[in-house]
Design a protein that fits this description.
Blueprint (H helix, E strand, L loop, with lengths): L1 H6 L7 H18 L4 E7 L15 E6 L3 E8 L7 H15 L4 H5 L1 E8 L5 H9 L3 E3 L6 H8 L11 H14 L3 H12 L8 H26 L4 H13 L10
Helix pairs in contact: 6-7
């Protein structure tokens, strides 16, 4: 979905219509990838369970496996994604985990934010603080950065072997289930340890993702005669039929 976030240009339609179109593209992508999408826009549950508070939280998408749950929030705004959207999304997850249903609570709850526009810097920090994977334009998602660090990339500069080892060690600690974050918060409140140091978060955002991510991007462009990500988007666009989507009003 990163290539779609990066290159998909929505038609000149209203915000809600643009959001629904973005959601449909995700659903088609999940079908293509054979992902078990158990909740779609309009759903008020997570794995079929309502939030403990009684609030009717809407889920844009939920992917379920026997071992885990992936809760997705989709936004395609004309301005940067800020605090309110991240705060509400995070609280939804906590509210769902407070359910009486032990089966739902036992499944590791991962969260992903897919944004068609850039995130505010504070929103990036908040996402990492709470283990949320943010996918936004112009920045390699941390999970993709982790994958690249485990591969040999010809002509890679500015990311030495030591940096690659740090990426492989740090990223798995930044994208974790919500249950892990709640346990860590309880430990921090007991004085046992910090949740995550501010310097570490800054390095993930400004050094790992921004600087190292750009170096991988440049190297992959050189290896693939440029436009490696755009080529990926062109392939997905053909598979998903993005050019044939009927926009509202057509």
């Amino acid at each position: 979905m990163f290539s779609i976030v990066q290159f998909w240009e929505p038609p000149p339609i209203s915000g809600p219509e643009r959001g629904r179109l973005f959601e449909q593209i995700l659903y088609d992508y999940c079908d293509y990838r054979h992902l078990d999408l158990v909740e779609r826009a309009g759903s008020r549950t997570l794995r079929g369970e309502r939030a403990a508070s009684g609030f009717m939280h809407e889920s844009d998408a939920v992917i379920a496996t026997p071992e885990l749950t992936v809760h997705l929030e989709l936004k395609h705004l004309t301005s940067e994604l800020g605090k309110n959207e991240l705060l509400v999304f995070n609280q939804k997850g906590i509210d769902f985990l407070m359910t009486d249903n032990a089966h739902v609570r036992s499944k590791s709850l991962y969260r992903i934010v897919l944004s068609g526009n850039l995130l505010a810097q504070a929103a990036r920090r908040f996402a990492i603080q709470w283990g949320i994977l943010a996918i936004e334009p112009d920045r390699l998602p941390l999970l993709i950065l982790y994958q690249f660090a485990n591969l040999y990339v010809d002509g890679l500069r500015g990311v030495d072997e030591k940096a690659q080892k740090v990426i492989k060690s740090a990223v798995p600690h930044s994208i974790v289930p919500l249950q892990n974050k709640i346990r860590q918060l309880a430990d921090a409140l007991s004085g046992n340890k910090l949740l995550m140091e501010s310097q570490f978060i800054d390095e993930l955002i400004n050094v790992f993702q921004r600087e190292y991510g750009d170096e991988y991007w440049i190297s992959l462009d050189a290896m693939n005669e440029e436009n490696w990500l755009e080529k990926r988007f062109d392939k997905l666009s053909w598979i998903l039929g993005l050019d044939d989507i009927c926009y509202p009003g057509q």
